Each structure stands twice: as structure tokens, then as C-alpha cells.
Amino acid sequence: MNDLWASTTGNAQATVKLETADDGFLFRLTNTNDTKLLQNQLGNVVQIHKLLKNGVSFSTKELRQLATAQQDLMAEYDRQQKVVVQDALKVAATYSVVLQRAFDAVATLDVLVGLAHQAAYSPHGYCRPTLIDGDDCAGHGIQLQGARHPCVEVQESVSDYIPNDVDLTHDRSNVLLVTGPNMGGKSTYIRAVGAIVLLAQIGAFVPCQSATIHIRHHILARVGAGDWQDQGISTFLAEMLESAAILRTATARSLIIVDELGRGTSTFDGYGLARAIAEYMVRNVGNLCVFATHFHELTSLADVFTNVRNCHVTAQRDVQGLTFLYQIQPGPCLESFGIQVAELAGVPAVVVQDAQRKARELE
């Protein structure tokens, strides 16, 4: 085409560009003034398609035939490519069972190696738990010495984790009521119990000095606070739905973990529900339970039932403020130190002082 255009114009330097288009290829002359010459001299050879500022686009019969042939080849290429992919997938599918078994083996190995690595290299030490089975629960339960939360203790912000003992024994201490200040470690303590029992019952070592566990059929938890907006369920309703499911499921061989039940409603309603649920577990189910609460009135359950025990996390007040000791001690704690925690969080002093005044009035 360059030779033909050069002979037509008499300019050996004249060139024609070849460009791709939606339906194939087009020639383009960059000077739109060449349109009339193109039509007059080569009108029987070329077909003009577009006349734009950047030139005139045209094609020839041979170019259109080549474009059609190229499109046919590409279509055949795509068809053959799909055949190759389908054949490869058919062959790969024959290995799916083998691959799935390999994936399962690698996943299991990954979990076991992870558990073993953590147990072997923990600076605080893991122990092999002693597991006891049998439907006779009397005198058995969960006894942990120096228990730690396996996830909290490895956090970078935790430099010196304070371990604690746990004694949940049928007919002696079915329920541990845990009271104490906000941020004092109640939630970490009760969740550590669940994590340790779970680790023990899947065959792993546990973050304790020693652990004796009567095998649990369920680990049932009511912890955290959150609504289910997509289902129109409020925080308190979600709390009650979970509590109802726990009470329907629980047996004497269940471990139930409860964290501040009843906080999503009024104080009186929340306390009434928390006490009723705790009493139902003691009277009708006989399961083991760690129950963290800010309802100090709930600690009187230990005066009614001989198998309910009170314990609390400790804190000290000094001139620098509030110091959390994270140590579990026997007996109830009748202070939540909520105002002191608000002060630590940077609540304005005038608000803290007003809160202290109102708290004294209520007392």
C-alpha cells in the first residue's frame, strides 16, 4: 500500500499507517487533505471509512479479506483453547479426592505443629492435662493451677502475665461468681477457662502448671455485647436468645461461661434475670459455670447454695491512681471502680467529680 500511494502522489516519502479497528484493520493517511486525491485516483481500489481530524481511514478488499481471515483464526484459537482447558480440568478432577486428602493432612499437620510449637517454646510452660471421663460427676470438675489465657499471654503489650488457679468441682464449687473492677481481668480469667478446656479436649497441652479436667460435653458461652442489625435484633435480645439456647442445651457435664449477663437492660431487670438464670443452673442443671458480674447483690448466692463460690480480681488505689493486680482472690468484691477507670480513660475532671458526688448520693 505504501508503494501504491507513493506512486500515486509521486512522493517516495509518503507513508500509509496500518491500525487496528473494532472489526479488523484500517489504513490511515495522516493528512485529511489527501482525501480527494485518494477518492479520485484510487476510488476503485479503496473504501473510505472515517474522516477525522487526525486523518482519513480506509481499507482495501485484500485488507478486509485478511481481517476476516484473522478473525476466523482467532475464533478457532479461542475454541481450541477452551477445549484444552476443559480437557485439563477433566484430568485434574480425577485427582480431586487425592488432593482433598492431602489438603486435610496438611491442615491437620499445621494445627498439630502449631500447638506443639507453642507448648514447646512458651516461656511460661505448658503441661499435659489429666482428663477424667464418666457420668458420675461428684467430686470431679476442672482444677487448674497457674492457668493462663493462651492468646492474651503472647500479646506484645503483655510483658508479665499473672496466672491464676481455678477450682470448679461438682457439689462443692459448681459456680464461681467473679466480681471486681472494670479492666481488672475478669473476662480474661473466665475465657481462659474455656480455652484451656477446649485445648485439653482436642488433645493439646495447656497453659497451666497442672490441669485436671472432667471431660465436658459442651462449652457454652455468653460473652461480649453486640446486636444483629441485619436481623433487627438488639443487644439485649441477642443476649437473651443466647442465654435461652444455653439453658436448653446445658447438662450436668457442660461448662458455661457467662460475662456480665443482664447489662443490656435496666439494673433491676438485669439483676433479676442474672440471678434467676444462675439459680436455675444450680438447682436444675448442676453444670459447672464461671460467671463474671458487676451485680454485687449476686454474690449473696454463696449464702444460699453451698456449691456457689465467690472470687474477685483485686486492685489497689494509691496517689498515682488505680493499679490492677490481676490476681484472683477468694470472696466477693463490692466495688467496680468504674469512676476510677473513667478517670484513667481521660474523662474530664469535672465529669469525674460530678460522678463521684452522684455515686455518694446513691450510696
From TrEMBL:
| Claim: Signal is one of the keywords in the record | no
- What keywords are annotated for this sequence in UniProt? ATP-binding, DNA-binding, Nucleotide-binding
Q: What's a single GO CC term here?
A: MutSalpha complex
The segment(s) forming the DNA mismatch repair proteins mutS family domain are 254-270
In the record, biological process GO terms are: mismatch repair; mitotic recombination
A GO molecular function assigned to this protein is: mismatched DNA binding
Source domain of life: Eukaryota
Say if the entry is tagged with keyword Nucleotide-binding.
yes
Entry-linked PANTHER family: DNA MISMATCH REPAIR PROTEIN MSH2, DNA MISMATCH REPAIR PROTEIN MUTS FAMILY MEMBER
Q: What is this protein called?
A: DNA mismatch repair proteins mutS family domain-containing protein
What does UniProt list as this organism's lineage?
Eukaryota, Sar, Stramenopiles, Ochrophyta, Bacillariophyta
